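comment on this one:
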Amino acid sequence: MLGVAAGAAIAAAVIVTIAKNPGPSREHKEAARYIEQVDAIQQELRIELTKATKAYRDFARATRRAEVGVELAGAERTMQKLERRLGAVSAPPVAAHLRKLLVRLAAAEVALAHEVRQLAVFSPRFTLLVRAANDAGKELGRALSSVSPPTAHAIRGTKKQIAAARAAFTTEAAQAAATQADAVDAYDAKIAVVGLRLRKLSPPEVMRPAYRTQLHTLAATRAAGQALANELRKSDRSQVAVVGRKFSIAARGATSVAAQQAQISAVKAYNKRVRAIGAMQASIQSELVRVQSLAG
């Protein structure tokens, strides 16, 4: 949905043309000259703008092509070039507000273009790393479930037999706990690698809450995992259940209500930025009509 919104906004024409209606008014001539300069910029960049539109549409449609990332980078450069050229054109007083709106719209397009390019680069890498963390969790689950700790049961026999049975039970239980601790350590090592790779990514604004949540979850899970492994290796394992629960809670951090609400808010803010571009386009149309009426 993010790609669709961005594609629709950025693919829209940034420059609009005022109807030419030559008249004796000096204001009209100055305004018409400004509009002609703006139109000339659009004409010079028409091919590049068409390519930019295609890049955003491909991204919005989730077209999986290796060159989409390159195309989005080119589209961002095109929007930057458009912004620079619009900013370099001076406007007469009658068209000063129109120029301000056009430059502001171009700047908003550049910002959104940059965010979309970031999103195209960040999302697949982020998804792969989150998947790796989830896979590590599944592997841990399988490893833990494969361990069969001894079950306490009544012992009958002589004192010597009972003592031997108890010693065997203690040894077997300690070995099972140690095996579980090793599995937790292996899991911690895997998510540590995932965390390091995550820190090398640069999330776009719309994905920052999810990114921060994932980093926090991995760090909290690692700490809880270390604590659990330590408890499992103790002779007194009475606190394993308590520490194990904390470990489970830490691992579910990314799916908490607070985390989901933060990401939802980020998406809403993103959509608001997209809608703002549409509102600016409408304002430009209205300002064109105003300038035309004043200068006519």
Q: What stands out?
A: Residues 2-121+271-295 form one domain.
